[in-house]
Specification:
The chain has no helices and 35 strands. Strands 13, 14, 15, 16, 17, 18, 31, 32, 33, 34 and 35 form an eleven-stranded mixed beta sheet that branches. A six-stranded mixed beta sheet has the order 3-2-1-5-11-10, with no helix packed on it.
């Protein structure tokens, strides 16, 4: 049986997905819509053909079996087979496929194998546009979620290059697109990280700078002010808080580029020593550092993602890092970002690497030995990743991987049963220069939303409304 349903734009909501599903003469909003059959229920397959209205286009990729809905010149929504979810009235998953309607230019066909399904059916296509964007369009190289004002919701910090660093406040409804705090300094910031460095119960902000001293802005009653600078002025591209010596306060790791050593600044009594307590023996071009207990001995080890050389890991023994790396990767990729996460649920941490000009990787931890176990696969866009972040986006108990990309759509790779699908399950409509991605439940509804910080484009948040992410930014940062 076949229904033919029009897909039209909602002019009243410019930041929405721009689509409404019509079914049985009534309308429901795009994203999780009820499809009414045009013939007896359960005698399937049910075939729905969706006409496109307004200025939307269909762009098919036959070998990927995907469909893109776009405005001329800028993406509005991207639909892929992997992003289509159909459930019946009993909550049971129903097999469905999606693709261009044969011989019907400008139409999308969804085929639902509805034999034995309990109606009504809920069709949840992947629509990919951010739901928030910042007013500012700066060179944002890093974003980080944190409840800076202690009101129970997540606020967003953005670190920008030769522009003020900013905090966007969550007012319990949404992020304000205009920054509530901006640093007095406009420095070449590559990385920001929240952490309670002085143990007073609120979050302070660490900033890693290129060729300038690194900083910590101390939070006093919801106001950030400069409180610490490093003695070294190096090319710090990444900062990460972690209690490396197990004394109960946060120490700061700095990953340095331009073939400089990486460093750790020790916290003693709520203040960082401006002179590094640890320096790596290796001088590398490090883009990213991440703390994680890779060997399960109760202390934090340090991983580094490097440019055109092996990635490395330094082991912590008794509260001090060995200056010589205990692990180096066999490959020499252009790694721009690393993140620890237990991707296979076996109780130890595995390491994701986001690579530029190459496939992304996961190094699996098997009894304390890391080895490459997964690579992404996208024949159209083979690897321009600048940031990766683990998060359970679909609430099924395993970690999925977000990738922020340079000049391409951002993506999420879904974990099913302890392994990532090499093809993305979600792609953003925007193809911007995203330097930082971070998961956080910005709307307090129990699922993870995705923030993206971009170069010379607004920062964005993609809202999760029960998987997949809403394609339209739910938030955009303030005025350019």
């Amino acid at each position: 049986m076949r229904c033919r349903l029009p897909l039209v734009r909602r002019e009243s909501e410019p930041n929405s997905t721009g689509a409404t599903w019509w079914s049985g003469g009534s309308t429901t909003s795009a994203g999780s819509s009820t499809a009414s059959p045009c013939a007896p229920e359960g005698e399937g397959p049910l075939v729905l053909e969706l006409d496109l209205g307004g200025d939307l286009l269909v762009l098919s990729r036959p070998d990927r079996l995907g469909v893109a809905l776009m405005r001329p010149g800028s993406p509005l929504a991207v639909l892929h087979y992997g992003g289509l979810e159909v459930f019946d009235a009993d909550g049971e998953s129903v097999t469905a496929r999606m693709g261009p309607a044969p011989g019907a230019e400008g139409s999308v066909r969804i085929v639902v194998e509805d034999h034995g399904a309990a109606y009504p059916l809920m069709i949840d296509p992947l629509l990919t546009t951010s739901v928030w964007t910042s007013a500012e369009s700066e060179w944002t190289f890093s974003v980080a979620w944190g409840d800076w004002d202690g009101d129970g919701d997540l606020d967003l910090a953005a670190g920008s290059y030769n522009a003020p660093n900013r905090v966007y406040e969550n007012t319990g409804v949404a992020l304000d697109p205009n920054a509530v705090w901006s640093s007095a300094e406009s420095e070449p910031t590559w990385s920001v990280a929240w952490g309670d460095w002085d143990g007073d119960g609120d979050l302070d902000l660490a900033v890693g700078n290129d060729g300038r001293a690194n900083r910590v802005y101390e939070n006093t009653g919801g106001t950030l002010s400069p409180a610490w600078t490093s003695a070294e002025s190096e090319s710090t591209f990444s900062v990460a808080w972690g209690d490396w010596d197990g004394d109960g306060d946060l120490d700061l790791a700095a990953g340095n580029a331009n073939y400089q050593s990486n460093r750790v600044y020790e916290n003693t009594g709520g203040a960082l020593d401006p002179i590094a307590a640890w320096t790596s023996a290796e001088s590398s071009y490090t883009w990213s550092v991440a703390w994680g207990d890779w060997d399960g001995d109760g202390d934090l080890d340090l991983a580094a993602g490097n440019h055109a050389e092996s990635n490395r890991m330094w082991e912590n023994t008794g509260g001090a890092l060995d200056p010589n790396a205990v692990w180096t990767s066999a490959d020499r990729d252009e790694t721009r970002s690393v993140a620890w996460g237990d991707w296979d649920g076996d109780g130890d941490l595995d390491l994701a690497a986001g690579n530029e000009d190459q496939a992304n990787r996961v190094y699996e931890n098997e009894s304390g030995v890391l080895s490459s176990a997964w690579t992404s696969d996208d024949p159209y866009y083979p690897g321009e990743t600048l940031s990766v972040a683990w998060g359970d986006w679909d609430g099924d108990g395993d970690l999925d991987l977000a990738a922020g990309n340079d000049g391409q759509s951002n993506r999420v790779y879904e974990n099913t049963g302890g392994t990532l699908d090499p093809d993305p399950a979600w792609s953003s409509a925007e193809s911007e220069d995203t330097y930082g991605v971070a998961w956080g439940d910005w709307d307090g509804d129990g699922d993870l939303d995705l923030a993206a910080g971009s170069n010379q484009a607004p920062n964005r948040v993609y809202e999760n409304e029960g998987v997949p992410l809403d394609p339209n930014s739910a938030w955009v940062s303030g005025a350019s």
